[in-house]
Amino acid sequence: xxxxxxxxxxxxxxxxxxxxxxxxxxxxxxxxxxxxxxxxxxxxxxxxxxxxxxxxxxxxxxxxxxxxxxxxxxxxxxxxxxxxxxxxxxxxxxxxxxxxxxxxxxxxxxxxxxxxxxxxxxxxxxxxxxxxxxxxxxxxxxxxxxxxxxxxxxxxxxxxxxxxxxxxxxxxxxxxxxxxxxxxxxxxxxxxxxxxxxxxxxxxxxxxxxxxxxxxxxxxxxxxxxxxxxxxxxxxxxxxxxxxxxxxxxxxxxxxxxxxxxxxxxxxxxxxxxxxxxxxxxxxxxxxxxxxxxxxxxxxxxxxxxxxxxxxxxxxxxxxxxxxxxxxxxxxxxxxxxxxxxxxxxxxxxxxxxxxxxxxxxxxxxxxxxxxxxxxxxxxxxxxxxxxxxxxxxxx
Length: 396
Hints:
- It is built from 15 helices and 14 strands.
- By secondary structure, the protein is of the alpha/beta class.
- Strand 4 (about 125-130), helix 7 (about 140-150) and strand 5 (about 155) form a beta-alpha-beta unit.
């Protein structure tokens, strides 16, 4: 995703402001910082852009998920339903708070299938975590209804989908909490960073403290602050926040560029009858970070992915064989391998994930995803569209 493509004078100005000011840490040193609070400024801008009451920036998308789960009171023995297609950070965050990730089938949205979610709920289920992979979302109305029926928390992992919408609301703002990643290869980047949003004052207050060792941030003397509960260090530095401020200002322009390129490529592939496209829910608009297509069979998808490379079409992915993003390659989760000793309860439930997810396999085996870059010229996009059509037709 294009954040790293967008570095320019705006980012340099914000970073130089921090260096000139001389305070790189978010908290303390008030006498030196001359009113400069980049992390706070980024939080305010993020909350406004995401139409949420509160935002908390942290050191990564993984940290955002971890802090969100802790802030919602998720802990030992609780179960969190996650899709089979995600990034390893989703289940790492769940495990980090002592909870148990429960894998669940996806459908043609490439994220949680509501009927499978309903079937996966147990008396220990606490959270449903749809992951908006590759810029698009699940049927959030259906998942919201399930959460309301079973008194569960809806946590949106929108780390790959900032700027997408559902029912005219920003992704991340539909759930009780929403999380974003601002790492180097996201739509906007801080270099490293993440953020969470919520309309819950309680969750926001907990997140504010938990991400900084439990500090209550009351008063002007950091050394004299109280600690209402245990926390950890997930702070975002002022330097990282400075980059994020400039990047967030570019978000709408970036989304518009992605949509233009996406549309050209999709229109070209629509001419191939055998190619179909990922389902975007009726109320949803994706962020256009990826163009996700289905081939008729797994064999043809593999051949198409290979052909795209041979035709000079870079940045295309076959997630079915990917170590980071699909359950089949998560040996360290399916046969738990960890430096931290898990309880017998966690080990047992983790091993229950080591089974076949045939519906997920049926969709992912046929999926090829193509990244949308913002640096391509109109001519490059047209040429790319032609090569994509030729590559796919060559294997049909």
